[in-house]
Amino acid sequence: MAKSRIQFQKGLSVPEFLARYGTGKQCADALFGWRWPQGFVCPACGHADGYIEVKTRGLMQCKHCRHQTSLTAGTIFASSKLPLTTWFLAMYLLTQQKNAISALALKRHLGVSYPTAWSLKHKLLQVMLERDADRQLTGVLEIDDVYWGGECHGQTPGRGSPNKTPFVAAVAKNHEGHPIALRMSVVEGFRKTELAAWAAKFIHPDSIVVSDGLACFRGIADAGIEHQAMVTGSGAAGVELPERKWVNTILGNVKTAMQGTYHKASRSHLPRYLAEFRYRFNRRFDLAAMLPRLGVAAARTPPMPYRLLKLAEAHW
Ligand SMILES: [Zn+2]
Q1: Is the sign of the CA dihedral 49, 301, 70, 109 positive or negative?
Q2: Which of 5, 137, 214, 294 has its CA 20 to 30 A from that of 281?
Q3: Is 157's pLDDT higher than 50?
């Protein structure tokens, strides 16, 4: 799809959103369909014999084993005091705007406290992170090394100061050379062994990866993947190479977007912010579908308590 067609696609308008998801009943029906597209399946015994509504408590009781469950139990929506309409509005705001929305802006739009908005946002970002966790990039890829929180490309590699967080970015292109999929991962450092392990997990073995001359990228070949290093000397000249045009352009957009929305994203939460950018980038061809697709993923993502959200993330 051409860039202009991506920018001018319809998306989901506010009236359309309200017509579809404006009431608690509509949200509950949508969530039920996302969670159980073939009809209710008991989370305890796995039977699809149906359920009896325990109306007084808002629960569903399995006809087979009598286990009681709720619509949100076992999903990212679990243990939340917020009405589903607020969750759906948050999903709308996270997916339909051009730029990422900060927790502060979300707080104002939803009329909730800042910790509530932060928790809501990071739970939905966790959904995005887990949804793409196991996907491999394939085809012709451009790859680059980046530091968040300091001077980025072109600095002495592998020697970032403690307040800089290293991450790698890889962009897969289609036959016309247009970018179709993105992965960004925080790494411990730009080391060959780490890049080899990363590439083995996230890059399909039939791919061709183009990087600059940074030594750690030789780890990609160690992982059994074809690797081409474009060595052009130092400085800005390397940035202009057409073989690596997209990864540089996209990283520029990532940095601008991150600085605009998050200012000082902490190292521990960076993987979720990167996952958010990646999720939106990879699905930008169908903006209107992004909300229900996020809803399906959310219904299949296990609960994530606030205390775990606040902890440092694992890498990758
Ligand atoms: Zn059951």
Answers
A1: negative
A2: 214
A3: no
The Cα–Cα gap between 128 and 105 comes to 19
For residues 231 and 49, give the distance between their C-alpha atoms in angstroms, rounded to a whole number.
63
Q: 104-135, pLDDT tens digit by residue?
A: 999 999 999 999 999 999 999 999 999 988 89
Rounded distance from Cα 43 to ligand 1 centre (Å): 7
Residues 257 and 263: beta-carbon distance below 8 Å: no
Specify the 3-state DSSP secondary structure of 124.
Answer: helix
Burial of 117 (0-12, 13-18, 19+ CB in 10 A): buried
Q: pLDDT at residue 210 above 50?
A: yes
Query: In this structure, what DSSP letter does residue 235 have?
Result: G
CA 241 to chain CA centroid, nearest Å: 28
Report the alpha-carbon angle 253-146-150, nearest 5: 90
Secondary structure (3-state) at 78: coil
**165-173 and 179-186 strand pairing:** antiparallel
- Residues facing 54 on adjacent strands: 59
Strands of the sheet containing 59-62, edge to edge, are: 51-54, 59-62, 68-69
Query: 305 C-alpha vs ligand 1 centroid, how far in Å?
Result: 25
Residues 290-315 have a mean pLDDT of 87
**Token code pair at residue 123:** 């739970």
Residue 97 has pLDDT above 90, yes or no: no
87: closest CA among 295, 275, 269?
295
Say if CB 250 and CB 278 are below 8 A apart.
Answer: no
What single-letter amino acid sits at 159? R
CA 65 – CA 76 distance, rounded (Å): 24
**Cα(40) to centroid(ligand 1), Å:** 10
CA-nearest of 178, 144, 208, 209 to 285 is: 178
- Residue pair 142/173 in contact (Cβ under 8 Å)? The answer is yes
